[in-house]
């Protein structure tokens, strides 16, 4: 029963990932329908992240105060409305409003899921559950690759997105009917030290944030995962398909397949690194080594555009797999602050994760437009390899900073924070 209830929350997280990367395979349709270029497209995709990031701290507090069931149900309902608005949008303004609603509503999914994990699953399974959550979420991103492209080719992007709104509504109903905040509501033992609520529920949002930031690891870990997820979702979530189409002469379905390969590897890497970290009883050394590997792989990918199909696949698979290390951030942070701050800390770290793509997707678009040489294909701008190289090296710089920050964190040895201190 524990994993069944957890799975329903994870299903909403799958939807959040689907919506996060769906624009990547419909870039041409969006640029044509709304008559926009790279900067505007990056901004349209970015509206998802603007509201997503803004909601993270309130989501953490609300998860502590309301519980995950109400939060997940409300999030699903609003996500349904936002997806319909995006599907029916007559212009870029309405489409942006739809993306804004989608981002703000699905923002509750991961933090609420972590809250469910803290109550329904044992402490020793927390990092693994975080990794499995990423695995299920990224499955949504995989559905937003080749399967979405095939559906768009068959039915059009608007009809396909409208159907995804219906699916979200069904998940909303299932969550309300079956999910409960804590096992004690069904007469079972809770895995949370204070199942009836925490002291955090009695203090304000900013008081909780200020208290969380008194713990050094939280302050450092806020900025780390964005450097990993930023370039990954800037590539797989928006710019990878046009990059591969233009500079590796791929059709849209093949380019989407390569981006899906990256996301599948990310899905595998999440639980793998969660399990490895729990098994070894260490967080920091695994994180540092993985960040260094990612730096080498990203720089290699954009060093030149002559990689063979096999080597390109190897690079993208390695990037996706090793990027799964970011799930350690949540367990690492949870072990670095009192349990009363679980929701707030989870929200802060998830905000840090999404700040990466929130900044990088539009930033890459702006840089591409500034470096555009005037080439067009069927009325859509085509960008040179040098333009992509410069834009993504800027994104990779954040990863380099993240690597340095990880080195200053304190190892927790996978132990719960000592409440008495």
Give me the secondary-structure topology.
Blueprint: H1 2-21, H2 27-33, H3 38-54, H4 56-65, H5 68-88, H6 92-106, H7 108-120, H8 126-143, H9 146-155, H10 157-178, H11 205-212, H12 216-221, H13 224-247, H14 252-280, H15 284-301, H16 309-323, H17 328-334, H18 342-370, E1 376-377, E2 380-381, H19 385-406
Antiparallel strand pairs: 1-2
Helix pairs in contact: 1-7, 1-8, 1-10, 3-6, 3-18, 4-7, 4-18, 5-6, 5-7, 5-10, 7-8, 7-18, 8-14, 9-10, 13-14, 13-18, 13-19, 14-16, 15-16, 15-19, 17-18, 18-19
Helix and strand sequence: HHHHHHHHHHHHHHHHHHEEH
In DSSP terms (H or I, runs of 4 or more residues), the helix count works out at: 19
Terminal Cα span: 35 Å
> CATH superfamily name?
MFS general substrate transporter like domains
Assess the beta-strand content as a share of residues: under 5%
- Biggest sheet, strands in spatial order? 1-2
| CATH topology annotation | Growth Hormone, Chain: A
Uncertain ranges: 195-202
How many structural domains are formed by the residues?
A: 1
Number of strands: 2
CATH class: Mainly Alpha
CATH architecture: Up-down Bundle
Shape: globular
The main sheet comes to: 2 strands, antiparallel
Radius of gyration: 20 Å
Q: In percent, how helical is the residue content?
A: over 70%
Mean pLDDT: 87
């Amino acid at each position: 029963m524990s994993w069944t209830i957890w799975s329903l929350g994870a299903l909403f997280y799958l939807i959040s990932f689907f919506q996060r990367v769906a624009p990547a395979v419909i870039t041409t349709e969006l640029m044509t329908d709304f008559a926009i270029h790279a900067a505007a497209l990056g901004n349209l995709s970015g509206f998802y992240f603007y509201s997503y990031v803004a909601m993270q701290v309130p989501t953490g507090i609300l998860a502590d105060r309301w519980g995950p069931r109400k939060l997940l149900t409300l999030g699903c309902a609003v996500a349904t409305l936002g997806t319909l608005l995006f599907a029916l949008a007559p212009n870029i303004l309405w489409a942006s409003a739809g993306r804004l609603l989608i981002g703000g509503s699905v923002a509750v999914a991961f933090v609420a899921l972590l809250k469910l994990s803290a109550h329904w699953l044992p402490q020793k399974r927390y990092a693994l559950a975080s990794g499995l959550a990423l695995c299920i979420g990224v499955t949504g991103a995989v559905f937003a690759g080749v399967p979405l492209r095939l559906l768009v080719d068959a039915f059009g992007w608007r009809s396909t997105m409208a159907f995804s709104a219906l699916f979200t509504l069904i998940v909303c109903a299932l969550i309300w009917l079956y999910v409960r905040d804590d096992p004690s509501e069904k007469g079972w033992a809770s895995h949370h030290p204070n199942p009836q609520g925490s002291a955090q529920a009695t203090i304000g949002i900013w008081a909780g944030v200020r208290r969380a930031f008194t713990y050094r690891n939280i302050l450092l870990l806020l900025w780390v995962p964005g450097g990993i997820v930023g370039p990954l979702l800037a590539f797989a979530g928006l710019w990878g398909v046009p990059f591969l189409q233009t500079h590796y002469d791929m059709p849209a379905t093949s380019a989407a397949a390569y981006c899906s390969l990256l996301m599948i590897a990310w899905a595998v890497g999440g639980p793998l690194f969660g399990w490895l970290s729990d098994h070894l009883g260490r967080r920091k050394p695994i994180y540092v080594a993985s960040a260094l590997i990612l730096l080498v792989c990203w720089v290699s990918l954009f060093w030149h555009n002559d990689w063979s199909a096999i080597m390109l696949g190897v690079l993208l698979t390695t990037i996706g797999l090793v990027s799964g290390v970011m799930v350690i951030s949540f367990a690492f942070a949870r072990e670095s602050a009192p349990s009363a701050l679980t929701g707030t800390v989870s929200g802060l770290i998830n905000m840090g994760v999404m700040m990466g793509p929130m900044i990088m997707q539009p930033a890459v678009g702006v840089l591409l437009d500034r470096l555009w040489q005037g080439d067009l294909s069927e009325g859509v701008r085509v960008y040179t390899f040098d333009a992509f190289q410069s834009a993504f090296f800027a994104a990779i710089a954040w990863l380099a900073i993240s690597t340095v920050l990880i080195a200053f964190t304190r190892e927790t040895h996978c132990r719960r924070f000592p409440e008495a201190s």
